[in-house]
Amino acid sequence: MKNLLSMEHLSNEDIMRIIERAEQFEDGELSRLTKSYHVSNLFFEPSTRTKTSFEMAERKVGCTVIPFDADFSSALKGETMYDTVKTLEMIGMDAVVIRAKEDEYYNELLEGINVAVINAGDGAGQHPSQSLLDLYTIHKEFGSFEGLNITIVGDISHSRVAKSNATALKRLGVNVRFLCPPEWAGDFESYHSWDGLIEDSDVVMLLRIQHERHVVNKSFSKESYHEQYGLTFELEAKMKKNAIIMHPAPVNRDVEIVSELVECERSRIFDQVRNGVFVRMAILETLLEGR
């Protein structure tokens, strides 16, 4: 692995290697990196979990984190992504973690750039590190993927998490179902009712409604969405005994999920956040080792 851009670029073997290494980090193993690498986090969209998780992971594997503030960068003067990353490479960066509004922004970095590029989210495209931490969370819970039923609920067409996870989970033998309003299905075949889904789901993965990517819809109602698609107490009571709830967060409480269920016994929402550090440590080590 030279870069981490999309789950479509990872084999099942790549995925399992990262999961196994993340597990070793969680068990207390130290990084194999033999020197301090320089990493910068270029976030052109807001982030709490992903940005701070990467910063923590970078420090835990021994990297030197070089600050980058998108609001005071030359990107505001019209500098291209390529020129920004090439500049950081010339300054001495070994890797960059990038979140940008444009789908597949990384295509202009495929040639001529010699630093490791980690995609931390491209528009409504992919979010591979989130997908890998989701896979790690699921693997910790069930020990394997084959034959699991996973229902992904919400804003499918705008969700890079849904797209990344669908790619990987299906390849790993998971039966993936999508539940959403018809206008949010995009290219995915989807269900529009919980009927027949909640009782056999091993994982219910809820998604945030991404209002920032929608054309303004004055008819949208949080209350009606919650009533039809939100995870309620009544639905949670129908879930299998060992089934779990996931959400990449941030959570719109009482919209995608009733607030009291966010930290219920079967919820893994905050465990996902914790697991993200170990997974991102594994990603960084994999990309930087031997550079």
Automatic annotation (TrEMBL):
Q: From what superkingdom does this record's organism come?
A: Bacteria
UniProt binding sites for L-aspartate: 77, 160, 208
Reactions this protein catalyses: carbamoyl phosphate + L-aspartate = N-carbamoyl-L-aspartate + phosphate + H(+)
The EC category is: transferase
* EC number from the UniProt entry: 2.1.3.2
Q: Quick one: a GO biological-process term for this protein?
A: 'de novo' UMP biosynthetic process
Domain Aspartate/ornithine carbamoyltransferase Asp/Orn-binding per the UniProt entry, residue ranges: 146-286
Q: What's an example GO cellular component term for this entry? A: cytosol
Q: Which Pfam families match?
A: OTCace, OTCace_N
Q: Which UniProt keywords apply?
A: Pyrimidine biosynthesis, Transferase
Annotated Aspartate/ornithine carbamoyltransferase carbamoyl-P binding domain ranges read 2-139
| Positions of carbamoyl phosphate binding | 49-50, 99, 127, 130, 249-250
One Gene Ontology term of the molecular function aspect: aspartate carbamoyltransferase activity
For the keyword Transferase, the answer is yes
Q: In which pathway does it act?
A: Pyrimidine metabolism; UMP biosynthesis via de novo pathway; (S)-dihydroorotate from bicarbonate: step 2/3
Known InterPro entries for this protein? Answer: Asp/Orn_carbamoyltranf_P-bd (IPR006132), Asp/Orn_carbamoylTrfase (IPR006130), Asp/Orn_carbamoylTrfase_sf (IPR036901), Asp_carbamoyltransf (IPR002082), Asp_carbamoyltransf_Asp/Orn-bd (IPR006131)
Task: Give the matching NCBIfam families.
Answer: asp_carb_tr (TIGR00670), PRK00856.1 (NF002032)
Q: How does it assemble?
A: Heterododecamer (2C3:3R2) of six catalytic PyrB chains organized as two trimers (C3), and six regulatory PyrI chains organized as three dimers (R2).
* Classification via HAMAP family: Asp_carb_tr
What this protein is reported to do is described as: Catalyzes the condensation of carbamoyl phosphate and aspartate to form carbamoyl aspartate and inorganic phosphate, the committed step in the de novo pyrimidine nucleotide biosynthesis pathway.
- Homology family: Belongs to the aspartate/ornithine carbamoyltransferase superfamily. ATCase family.
Its recorded name reads Aspartate carbamoyltransferase
